[in-house]
Amino acid sequence: MALPHARTFFSEPLATFFVLATFYVLFAKGTQRATAPFLAGVCYGLALLTRLDSIVVAPAIGLYICLRAIEQGNGRFDLWHQKVSLSELATVVGSRRFWAGVAAFAIGPIGYVLFQLTQNWLHFGNPFTSAYADQPEGIQFRTPLLAGLYGYFMSIGKSVFLFSPAIIFGLAGWWAFGRRHPSLSFSLIIAVVLLVVFHARWQNWAGGWCWGPRHIFMAHALALLPAAGYFADWGRLRRWLFAALMPVAFGVQLYGASQNFIDFYILYFRTPETLPNAYVLYSQEDLTPMRAVAPINDSIYVPQNSQWYRYWEMWQLGYTDNLWLRLWNRARGTEPPIR
């Protein structure tokens, strides 16, 4: 998914990189010394600076800091069989070293908050006024949760399994990964659930006309990490599955990166009345004659102008926004003029 999204706003891959770096530093260095939590906090502050919705994973990161401290204190968090004892938790939380690590981690996010409040005050005259203030829809969470979840997992327009097939390996590896790294696995589960539920309720949950479910890009990467557990036992069957699925998964992203999403928007997104129409399918009220035409690429709607076939049509019209494909067509003398 990073291939096509590195060509759009780039904020999703960059914020995801910083969140992954946050987890990595805590995993590799722990919390015993303040330098590691400080570095992790700087990474997380940069994630917030890149995309404010990175705040959604804050509870998962906070949980991992606690569980990682328990692990380093010779405690044990067993995701499958055993709970953390209250005495272990009290010992860790009551230690000076733990709170020193928390304070060191907080420096990065607090620095971001101060910077953002200053920027808001300079740009809008009020530190608590956001950049959404000039948009009519504002900040709303009005999408029915089940509708958003259906779109993210089952729809042709935004399903993570269609737009990121490699995520299947991550889901298949959760059990083995959780047994080996229980605290990290549990924290990642919390992060993924928070991201998906939060954005499923967002009024623009589908992320517009970009390739795939843009807003939960971070959830893709976090859910893919446990693939390490799936491939830890690298048998013949798993080699075959990898060899069969990964070319398909890579081809999906290459196809998504083959066109300019702005060209797609100009050609198709502004024609909602073009048959077949796309209508909202949230409730019975949406099935009345007064129902509104929906944005064409949002996922719970009747499919209209799907990227899966419209990108191919754009190729036939001469649109190709991938440099290597364009040079290949030019070398073969088959580059069509844009019609």
Commentary on this structure:
It is globular and about 70 Å long. It is mainly α. It folds into 2 domains: 2-239, no CATH class; 259-332, no CATH class. It has helices at residues 2-5, 11-29, 35-50, 58-72, 86-93, 96-124, 145-154, 160-163, 167-172, 174-180, 182-201, 217-224, 227-231, 236-256, 261-269, 307-316, 323-332. The model is unreliable at 289-299 (pLDDT under 50).
What coarse outline follows from CA principal-axis ratios?
Answer: globular
Low-confidence stretches: 289-299
> Order of SSEs, N→C?
HHHHHHHHHHHHHHHHH
Beta-strand percent range: under 5%
| Separation, N- and C-terminal Cα atoms | 29 Å
Mean pLDDT score: 83
Tally of discrete structural domains: 2
Main sheet: strands, sense, barrel: none
**Helical segment count:** 17
Strand and helix map with partners:
Elements: H1 2-5, H2 11-29, H3 35-50, H4 58-72, H5 86-93, H6 96-124, H7 145-154, H8 160-163, H9 167-172, H10 174-180, H11 182-201, H12 217-224, H13 227-231, H14 236-256, H15 261-269, H16 307-316, H17 323-332
Helix pairs in contact: 2-3, 2-4, 2-12, 3-6, 4-11, 7-11, 10-11, 11-12
